[in-house]
Specification:
The complex is a heterodimer of chains A (284) and B (79). By secondary structure, chain A is mainly alpha-helical. Chain A contains 13 helices and no strands. Chain A has one domain. Chain B is mainly alpha-helical. Chain B has a two-stranded antiparallel ribbon. Chain B is elongated. The chains are: A mainly alpha (284), B mainly alpha (79). At the A-B interface, α10, α11 and α13 of A face α2 and β1 of B.
């Protein structure tokens, strides 16, 4: 691939991260800090001997067990991070193209040697592949602090810490699963990403209201005129079952990524993304 | 055609949504797509929304029976 094009795209991605560092880095950092503070507060409320007993139990539980088998038990710890990533993604996607037009920076970027397609693709890559990296790194830092704290606690209470090492390995494996899950979920929800980007590029004011309002109206008119509910069924069929995109085992990755529903979703999402790319020519 | 679609932002939005809806409806008709109920199967725990539905219905039935008893009791009191 052309080296200049790669550098261009890297520059666009870097711009996205720098302009939205609150969503990419700030939000998960604050969440991790809150979780650590809450955990430390809870730990101070528990008797030291009980804490040592609990630690011994956890150490025995994980001792010698495969991190790949135990990783799914640690994944629920990531639920607050998943929810934060989801909310931040919606905020990012609905504002990103709208903000460019509002502050007129769209004119600057269109004067640069980057196409509208590259700009929109950089935003999609930023939210699908780059944002989860920051979330996983921050979770890793949180787990590391937790492990150091558990180690100090174990040493001071003379607890066998071999199992804690296994727990840490399981936590690392769970982070890989979490990253893959986040990427697969984003690809699965590509039609939603396309929808939000389309209205972010379209709306002169309140893009979120436009995105929500037009969706409700489209469903209403479909039901009213044709008596069908394909739009509602489509959305329900893709959002109601987390088993379609969450990954708890590495063996499931291929099955989740390479299937008809995933490809059809990417195809339908691409229609909306193409719409968003063309919509970007209207800069007023 | 291209000029018509790209005339302004509204025509472009309508065209995009028309294509999007057209593909969705066509695929829905061909595959008979229906909304899925949450059925969370994994080797670690089971989660099935149908069980909650059954539980809710059972509880409603129980509440109805309880209401029936209370009404009879109140009726007796009024008499």
């Amino acid at each position: 691939m052309n080296k200049f094009a790669v550098l261009q795209f890297y520059g666009l991605l870097r711009r996205e991260v720098l302009e939205h560092r609150n969503l990419f880095v700030g939000a998960p950092s604050v969440l991790a800090l809150l979780i650590l503070v809450a955990t430390a507060w809870v730990a101070t409320q528990i008797d030291q001997s009980q804490l040592a007993e609990g630690l011994e139990f956890v150490s025995m539980l994980f001792d010698g067990l495969s991190p790949f088998d135990m990783a799914p038990w640690i994944i629920p710890l990531a639920i607050p991070f998943y929810l934060t990533l989801y909310v931040c993604s919606v905020i990012y996607l609905i504002n990103t193209l709208y903000q460019d037009r509002k502050e007129m920076s769209v004119l600057f970027w269109q004067s640069m040697p980057v196409s509208n397609l590259q700009t929109v693709l950089s935003k999609i890559v930023a939210i699908v592949f780059v944002a989860p990296v920051f979330y996983v790194l921050i979770m890793f830092a949180m787990y590391l602090i937790g492990m150091i704290w558990l180690t100090i606690l174990g040493i001071s209470n003379e607890v066998d810490l071999v199992g804690i090492g296994w727990l840490f390995l399981a936590a690392i494996v769970s982070l890989v699963l979490i990253y893959i899950s986040a990427v697969v979920t984003s690809l699965w929800l590509l039609p939603s990403i396309g929808w939000l980007l389309l209205f972010s590029a379209f709306a002169k004011k309140t893009p979120l209201l436009w995105a929500g309002g037009v969706f409700i109206l489209a469903g209403f008119f479909e039901d009213f005129i044709f008596g069908t509910q394909y739009l509602a069924n489509w959305v329900a069929s893709r959002t109601s079952d987390p088993n379609q995109y969450l990954i708890l085992e590495f063996q499931k990755v291929f099955e989740r990524v390479f299937n008809y529903d995933m490809f059809f979703g990417i195809m339908v999402g691409s229609i909306l993304i193409v719409g968003a790319v063309f919509m970007r020519r209207f800069t007023d | 055609m291209k000029d018509l679609i790209l005339r302004n932002r509204y025509t472009l939005l309508l065209a995009t949504l028309a294509v999007y809806m057209g593909v969705l409806v066509a695929e829905g008709m061909v595959t008979g797509r229906e909304a899925r109920i949450i059925e969370y199967e994994n080797p670690y725990f089971d989660f099935n929304l149908n069980e909650f539905e059954e539980y809710r219905e059972r509880r409603n039935e129980d509440e109805d029976e309880d209401d029936g008893i209370s009404v009879r009791f109140e009726d007796t009191g009024d008499v």
